[in-house]
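Study this one:
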Amino acid sequence: VGDRCYEEGMFEAAKLLYTSVSNFARLASTLVHLGEYQAAVDSSRKANSTRTWKEVCFACVDGREFRLAQLCGLHIVVHADELEELIRYYQDRGYFEEVISLLEAALGLEQAHMGMFTELAILYSKFKPQKMPEHLQLFWSRVNIPKVLRAAEQAHLWAELEFLYDKYEEYDNAVLTMISHPTDAWREGQFKDVIAKVANVELYYKALQFYLDYKPLLINDLLLVLAPRLDHTRTVDFFAKDAMQHAAESRDAELAEKLLQWFLEEGKRECFAASLFTCYDLLPPDVVLELAWRHNLLDLAMPYFIQVMREYLSKVDRLDASESLRKQEEHVVEPTPLLFDFDGHE
C-alpha cells in the first residue's frame, strides 16, 4: 500500500505507512519529495544503504541543502566506485566549491582512500590552483600520480608538474619542465638535485645551455654537480662553441682575436678553424695568416684565405669597373655650340 501511495504521489500517506513498518529506505525517498531533508537524512542513517545515501544526497544538492548533502556524501565517497558519479553530479550543476568542501571533510575519515586524495587534487587544479601545492606536499604519496600529472599539465601548473615528476622518479621530465618553464618551475637547489639523477646524458648539456642563457652567474655551481658525469672533451667543445658565438655577437675584434689565440694555446685546432668562420668579419687576415703559419695550420686556414681572396678580387673587379666607367664618361665629347655673328650668320 505504501509503494502504491508513493507511485501515485501521495507522499504524506506513504510517509505514515513507511514509518509504521520501519521501511527507512523508502521513507527517506518519500521525505525528500516532501522537502523534509533533515528527516530524510535521519532515515538514511537508519537505512544505512549506499543507494539511499546517494538518493538523499542528490536531492539535497538539488534543494541547495549543501550541509545535509555533505553529511550524506561522507557516506558515499568512501566507496571508490561511487566517487566519480558523486563528483560529476556536483560539477554538472556548477557546485565546485561544495564538492571540494565535501572531499576536504572526507580526507580525515578512517576509510579515506587514494581516489579521494586524487580527485581532490584534480578539483584543485581546475578550480583552486592555489591550494594544489600544499595538498601535494602533504598527500603526494596517497594520490594516483599519473592521473594528477595529466591534470596539472592541462592546468599549466608547472611547479606542481615538476614536483610530481620528481616524486614519480621521472627525473628527465622534471628537468625538462624546469627548463621549459623556468619562471614557474625552476628552483636552484631542486634543479641541482634532480639533474644528477637523469638517465639521458644529453640533458646535462641542455642544462648547461639553459644556465648560460638564463642563469650565467650560477654556471659554476652546476658544473660542480655535473663534473663527474660530463665528457670533458665534449664539455670544452660546448663552451668553445658558446664562446665563439659570444665573440661573434659582441662585434669585438680584440675579443675574437684573443679567443683565436687561446684556442691555439690549448691545442684546439678544430675550434681554431671553426672560429675563422664564426668570427670571419672580425679577424684581420694578416693576423690569421701569421698565427696559422706559426702553428703549422695553414691547411686548416686555407678555406678562410680562399674566401678572403674571393672577396678581395670581387672588390678589385668592382673598382676596375667603376674606374673604367669614370674614364668613359670623361672621354665623351660634348657637342660644340653654334656661334652667330652680329648679322645673324654662322
The mean pLDDT is 88. DSSP finds 22 helices and no strands in the chain. The first helix runs from residue 2 to 7.
